[in-house]
Amino acid sequence: MRHAIRKWSPFEYWNRHHHRQASARAVHDLHFSHVALTLGNAPPFFNGKPIGVLLVNTVTLIWTIPTTRKSGAGLALTDIDHFSLTRNGVEIQKVAVGVGPTQTATDTAPLTGADTYDVFTITKDGFISDVSNDAVVTVAAANPASAVTDLKATLAQS
């Protein structure tokens, strides 16, 4: 029987879905190895002229694909159905299995503030791994320049 992925916190997820026999090896043993925050620049235009810079954030997450089950038995790539990527306890992506040994996922819409990412391994026999280690990224809010407050106009007479 397959277990559906629900939008629970990682703690609730673990408590409700953990299987003690032959589950995939705990992903927390296979830490996120890389988290990258990319700032892109795309100037917005008004009447065809650039008026500022719009920052677009992208978070790239990389982790090692598990090769054993929690019991120590081997886990082939073909045994893995997908990975569940969560941000702040809510699943944001079902990540298809790559060719190994590492897996990459990208969040193109991170939230402002501290975002906590976790990943679960879902095997084809329906088992769900332990939650991974947390990967935390802080995304700054938009911070444009302050408004000009001393603008004055003078009429010149000729």
CATH topology: Immunoglobulin-like
* Gap from first CA to last CA: 88 Å
Number of DSSP E strands: 9
Radius of gyration: 23 Å
Secondary-structure class: mainly beta
Overall form: rod-shaped
Describe the protein.
This protein has 158 residues and is mainly β. It has one domain (10-44, 52-138): Immunoglobulin-like (Sandwich), CATH 2.60.40. It is built from one helix and nine strands. The strands form three sheets. Strands 6-5-8-9 form a four-stranded antiparallel beta sheet, with no helix packed on it. Strands 1-4-7 form a three-stranded antiparallel beta sheet, with no helix packed on it. Strands 2-3 form a two-stranded antiparallel ribbon. Strand 5 and strand 6 (90-95) form a beta hairpin. The radius of gyration is 23 Å and the shape is rod-shaped.
